[in-house]
Hints:
With 482 residues, this protein is an alpha/beta fold. The chain has helices spanning 6-13, 52-57, 84-98, 112-124, 141-147, 168-175, 190-193, 196-204, 225-234, 283-299, 303-310, 347-359, 388-394, 414-420, 433-437, 461-468; strands at 4-5, 16-18, 22-23, 25-27, 37-40, 62-65, 78-80, 102-107, 129-131, 155-159, 179-182, 215-219, 239-244, 251-258, 263-269, 272-278, 321-326, 335-341, 374-379, 406-410, 426-430, 449-453, 472-475. It has a nine-stranded mixed beta sheet, with helices on both faces. Belongs to the MurCDEF family. MurF subfamily.
Amino acid sequence: MSLWTAGEAARATGGRATGDWTAAGVSIDSRTLEPGDLFVALTAARDGHDFVAQALERGAAAAMVSRVPEGVPEDAPLLVVADVQGGLEALGAAARERTGAKVVAVTGSVGKTSTKEMLRTVCAGQGRAHASVASYNNHWGVPLTLARMPADTDYAVIEIGMNAPGEIAPLAAQARPDVALVTTVAPAHLEAFGSLEGIAAEKASIAEGLAPGGTAVLHGDLDVSPILEAAARAAGAGRVITFGEAPRNHHRLLRATISDTTTVAEARAWRTPLLYKVRAPGRHFALNGLAVLAAAQALGLDRALAIADLGRWAPVSGRGARELIRLDAVESDLAIELIDESYNANPASMAAALEVLAGARVRDGVGRKAAGRRIAYLGDMKELGPEAPEMHAALAAHPAMQRVNVVHTVGPLARRLHEALPPERRGRHAATAAEMAAAVRRDLDAGDVVMVKGSLSTGLAAVVDAVRKLGHAAPQSASGDD
Length: 482
């Protein structure tokens, strides 16, 4: 498959191509590069120019560079541009310009990756779909996703994130979405924004990139929803669709029936009744699914097919995926259920995850202990500003905690939660994830359900791995996210 020829890439970037090459993909990492990819030598933690020779040896079709690296011959297949980041953005802009795809851009404090994946699943059922990989949602992730978009794409789903003020609008301008979706606004990155209103204003700026006549799909139940709606209208949105549980919303969730592995939701799209399913437990998944159906309507997708395909979506590792960890190769009842939420955390997503754990079904009489338990390993929630210690301590009083048997904590902020928990619920505290992971074996027993959640930098993936190593992991038929 040809994604970019040398001539197309040179015209798109204003660069100079050496050789007559054709690229089938675009990569920024020489370690994961596929043969035929265009390697983009970005300068981040390390200068990508240092890895051009390695990329070419691994089969790269060419490399985008701002200079010919040392040890690379002048006649090597290259795309020489003035600035590599600018070249990647130009390549992404050209990809967006040449496609007739309808584009959805997704942002939000919680749930943007799972909502993006729901949309990918729904769109793929009705055309050729393209979407961001993992959480490629920053200054290089968005243009990279666009640059990888085939010209014959029918639907594209672009995730847009932020860490500081002023980041979302330029990325939205690159994506130029037909639909802009904001999942929710919650305390996250408070250090950078100072207030929930500041976060809302930044999230709302996604509407500034809307194509003429585009649609904004917004959470309508928040205290800051008026900020979102006013910004969308000021940006010229042709239509604003709100979703939520309040009667004022165009897409309104009426009821969510949550089982151990599934959520069945009843809703209305104005006067039209909706019944849909998500293969993950949690009211937040029902709301995100409703946002997806609102976006699907704005895209002109067939609603019945969209509902059917939404029912086939399941979360990915680190964002609520559920696994059965079999402790015995023969006795299938001797197992632990793992809910992996280790990718990220803020107060809103932590509360949602605790509700999922509280509703999980344990199994009694199969382990050393008579009753199965709900056990949480909770790590620091980062970037919450000066109120972070109090936000961690407040989790101890969350209603879902009443159904959690033991809470183990990791990190200096999570220590405040540890101290606030009642003695009967207070588990171990560790300064690091590695320290916590080393003693996981003695914490757990057959019949338990264990959830692991914290900000990525806390490193709780090590705890997830330690739980997995207790046995042979078997994915559940249905699962849970962030």
